[in-house]
């Protein structure tokens, strides 16, 4: 199986978040979680001065573009290319060109891989985030996304939650 790479998709102006939401929904509906790993609209923090008051806000780093971390094949190309609001992949003709590691570095998106010794069935404690302090057993590990899925009790039901490796530790 080929390796996932980052691709840039051109969208209608102002449709970046809608495209992200539509692709995320399609990933869920078609069960492509193992092929389309992440969809991002790169943002930057800016401080604006309006009426003499400083206000922190976020602006799109590349208006009209969405970044997708995916394994390129006919299915994933079709799903992304035929999403409402997408005008095409960045690259010559209809051939998408992945971003190189050198191009990814200044964007701060390329993450260091965390090596863990977790296994399915291990009991872990959530160390940060909304589920901090929750204990659960791992039922799935996704090395590429650097995440695990555990079941937590929510409203009296077992609910699967996906957590990053950095948010959990093995229970002592």
Please name the CATH architecture of the largest domain.
Answer: 2-Layer Sandwich
Q: Would you tell me the overall average pLDDT?
A: 84
Largest sheet: 5 strands, antiparallel
- Give the SSE string: EHEEEEHEHEEEEE
Share in helix? 10-25%
Q: What is the number of strand segments?
A: 11
Q: Report the structural category.
A: alpha+beta
Shape: globular
- How far do the termini sit from each other? 36 Å
Query: What is the topology, as strand order, of the major beta sheet?
Result: 10-9-8-7-11
Which stretches are poorly predicted, pLDDT < 50 over at least 5 residues? none
Could you say what the CATH topology of the largest domain is called?
Alpha-Beta Plaits
Which CATH first-tier class of the largest domain would you pick?
Answer: Alpha Beta
Radius of gyration: 19 Å
Number of helices: 3
Topology diagram in text:
Elements: E1 5-11, H1 16-30, E2 36-40, E3 43-50, E4 53-60, E5 65-70, H2 74-81, E6 86-89, H3 101-104, E7 123-126, E8 135-142, E9 147-154, E10 157-164, E11 168-170
Antiparallel strand pairs: 1-5, 1-6, 2-5, 3-4, 7-8, 7-11, 8-9, 9-10
What do these coordinates show?
The protein has three helices and eleven strands, in the order βαββββαβαβββββ. A hairpin with an 8-residue loop joins β7 (123-126) and β8. 19% of the residues are buried. The chain has two domains: 5-107, Alpha-Beta Plaits, CATH 3.30.70.940; 123-170, Roll (SH3 type barrels). The strands form three sheets. It has a five-stranded antiparallel sheet with strand order 10-9-8-7-11, with no helix packed on it. Strands 2-5-1-6 form a four-stranded antiparallel sheet, covered by helices on one side. The protein is globular. It is 16% helix and 40% strand. It has 172 residues and is α+β, with helices and mostly antiparallel strands. The longest helix has 15 residues, at 16-30.
């Amino acid at each position: 199986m080929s390796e996932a790479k980052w691709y840039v998709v051109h969208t209608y102006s102002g449709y970046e978040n809608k495209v992200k939401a539509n692709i995320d929904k399609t990933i869920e509906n078609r069960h492509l979680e193992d092929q389309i790993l992440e969809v991002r609209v790169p943002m930057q923090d800016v401080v604006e001065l309006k009426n003499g008051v400083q206000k922190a806000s976020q602006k799109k780093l590349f208006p009209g573009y969405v970044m997708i971390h995916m394994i390129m094949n006919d299915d994933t190309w079709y799903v992304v290319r035929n999403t409402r609001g997408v005008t095409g992949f960045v690259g010559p003709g209809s051939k998408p060109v992945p971003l190189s590691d050198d191009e990814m570095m200044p964007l701060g998106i390329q993450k260091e891989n965390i090596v863990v010794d977790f296994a399915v069935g291990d009991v872990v404690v959530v160390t940060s985030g909304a589920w901090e302090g929750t204990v659960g057993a791992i039922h799935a590990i996704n090395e590429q996304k650097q995440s695990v899925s555990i079941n937590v009790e929510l409203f009296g039901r077992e609910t699967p939650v996906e957590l990053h490796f950095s948010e959990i530790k093995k229970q002592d």
